[in-house]
């Protein structure tokens, strides 16, 4: 039985292309704190971005990622429901193995425009965020653990050729955006224990500020419908959300953060 919520704010750099997501994450954490009526545990602190290859980025982030993993582990041991705020998807390298250890039959629902299934051997960009899910699935060794057995890519549409062989419907299944998206996703998650990852670029460009702008994504209404459907038919064991960037003003960023929290509300304890 879940007794409370563990709100974790990973404030540090994790393969950040720029500083805008690190700058937006405190506002998202504040919006979640207000919604959940709890205070966040802050892990790490923001530092200037300067995109490096995956190995250098991982080395820089590793101490804070290990701290996040340890805090998440404590939360699960205390039967708390984790809600995690982060800047970038690379944080999943630390969170997903902990989730898998505590919930071995978990289904990860990965809302993202991309597959994030590249490895150091297949990545054309060397960007660690594009390897996050692959690391947790054991497709490469990050040093942060493995253990995830099944994933649904929800709303993904920009998938590299090297990632496609891993999408086989067994370990990794794709639910593409478009007509019937919510109904198909609902059918896949029904009766499962799910851990939900939200990369804001799963949304169509212009819904909220993001670094990547991939056409053909979800609307906020569709994301809200998906969140409600998941909460209705599955057991949500945790949520992580990242990749929200700052707006033109601080007030705009706060508004966007609240809109996002309201959209995901049904999945939040």
TrEMBL record:
It comes from the Eukaryota. Keywords: Hydrolase, Manganese, Metal-binding. PROSITE patterns: ARGINASE_2. GO terms for cellular component: cytosol; nucleus. One of its GO terms (molecular function) is manganese ion binding. The keyword Iron does not apply. The keyword Cytoplasm does not apply. InterPro entries: Ureohydrolase, Ureohydrolase_dom_sf. Belongs to the arginase family. PANTHER family: ARGINASE (PTHR43782:SF3). This is Arginase. It comes from Cutaneotrichosporon cavernicola.
């Amino acid at each position: 039985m879940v007794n409370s919520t563990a709100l974790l704010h990973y404030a540090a750099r994790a393969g950040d292309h720029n500083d805008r997501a690190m700058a937006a994450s405190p506002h998202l954490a504040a919006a979640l704190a207000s919604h959940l009526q709890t205070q966040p545990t802050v892990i790490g602190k923001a530092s200037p971005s300067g995109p490096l290859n995956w190995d250098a980025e991982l080395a820089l982030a590793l101490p804070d990622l290990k701290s996040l993993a340890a805090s998440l582990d404590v939360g699960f041991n205390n039967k708390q429901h984790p809600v995690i705020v982060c800047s970038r998807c690379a944080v999943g390298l630390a969170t997903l193995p902990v989730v898998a250890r505590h919930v071995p039959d978990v289904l990860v629902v990965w809302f993202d425009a991309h597959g994030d299934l590249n490895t150091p051997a297949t990545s054309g960009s060397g960007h660690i965020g594009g390897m996050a899910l692959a690391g947790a699935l054991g497709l490469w060794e990050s040093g942060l653990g493995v253990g995830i057995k099944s994933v649904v890519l929800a709303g993904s549409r920009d998938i590299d050729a090297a990632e496609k062989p891993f999408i086989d419907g067994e370990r990794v299944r794709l639910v593409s955006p478009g007509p019937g998206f919510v109904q198909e996703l609902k059918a896949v998650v029904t009766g499962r224990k799910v851990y939900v990852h939200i990369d804001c670029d799963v949304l169509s460009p212009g819904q909220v500020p993001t670094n990547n702008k991939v056409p053909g994504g979800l609307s906020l209404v569709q994301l809200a419908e998906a969140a409600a459907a998941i909460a209705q038919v599955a057991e949500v064991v945790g949520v992580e959300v990242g990749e929200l960037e700052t707006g033109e003003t601080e007030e705009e960023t706060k508004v966007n953060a609240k809109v996002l929290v309201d959209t995901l509300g049904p999945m939040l304890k």
